[in-house]
Predict the structure.
Amino acid sequence: ELIKTSQTGEIAKERLIAEYNFSDEQAKAILDMRLQRLTGLEIEKIKEEETEIRTRVIDLKDIINSDERKESIVKEELLEIKDKYADERRSEINLSEDLDIEDEELIPVEDVIVTVTNNGYIKRMNVDQYKSQHRGGVGFAGIKMHEDDFVEHIQLTSTHDFHLFFTDKGRVFKIKGYKIPIGSRQSKGIPIVNLLKLQDNEKLASFTSIKDFDDENSHLFFVTKNGVVKKTDVSDYKNIRTNGIIALTLREDDELISVSLTDGKREIIIGGSHGKAIRFNEADVRSMGRTATGVRGMNLPEGEKVVGAAIVLSEEQEILVVTENGFGKRTNVDEYRLQTRGGKGVKTLNVTEKNGRLTALKTVNNDEDLIVITDKGVVIRTSVEGISQTKRATQGVRIIKLKQDQKVSTVALIPHQDEEDDFLEDSPNFIQEEIQIDESKKTDAIEMQALEKEEDQEVIIKKSMFDEE
């Protein structure tokens, strides 16, 4: 009657709430109810539904309070799943093969620079971390490190190559390039002992990259501090345990300093700290076993040591030498006559108090950049083509201007990059550094004029002697 006498549905709802104290939801439900729900049959269904719901609530509360009923229900449901999915396994699990959780296809193949400091910190960096700078520049801070640390090893490599790390004690470790943590130019890196299980007082001497251990024509050529050399097939180093294996047996008071990848048909050139170098054919050294000691490669004076060894790939290559005081030069390979291994070598640089003792020897092309690093962590990148080409018995020209307490510790070759130096502009001493660079260039120009004058005089003397004959 109340609903029937109401003009609108909203008025009917308000009157139901006022008359019977219904809630808003209850009043709305009454208005939405169909007239058939008012019959006696529908009322009985509502009462039956209420009874079922109340019974279900009691049963669910009993399940919550009974661990035994819960376990019984879980068991019953699992048996139903078992019966429903009782068909044979569709996937195959092969436990006989080694499972590698790392997908190398997702890791890009790219050239990187790997550096290791004297205190044993290692990292890899993108090649573009270093920009070109003119010869004679003052360099810039390349590696962040402690005051008593400096970069000792640097090499251009790839993320997917196998890297063989050789220690000064003659042991070798193997690791993939992408497993070396990546860092910025200013980062310190991580301790190399986190990657390699080095012994006490053992440090990294050299490392190289290997793409294929099954290549029968690939060899590793070893050079020690005392001038001992050895050649071994690459396949002998295919299986290397995580704690390393013996790469060669060292004699007393000797250390491994250089390891190079060769094809067995190259020429080797070795440089000593006293400014001499020897060039000989790799075939003079027979292939030996992994644990062999080796044979004499260069006869060194007492107190001197080998500072560098390189592979001669062609007659077009040049020999680059760098001294501890930052001087360097390029010399044609054919200036070094081919000798038999074990000799004393020929003069490769005139060692003086000004340029210092020889600290590095490399074979170079004109399409490369040279990175020079001092023992204080200062690094300069300059084009090899910008370093003057002179005869063997000369002092060289200045590559990097060093402070009084600095010495060159490491050099490395990387692909040439045509970028001008723009990073010095942020330095508060930019103008002062530019002046130092100009003065350095003037000094080097004077030195080169003197060298050219000496060479011209030598030509005149030889010409006059020829005319007299």
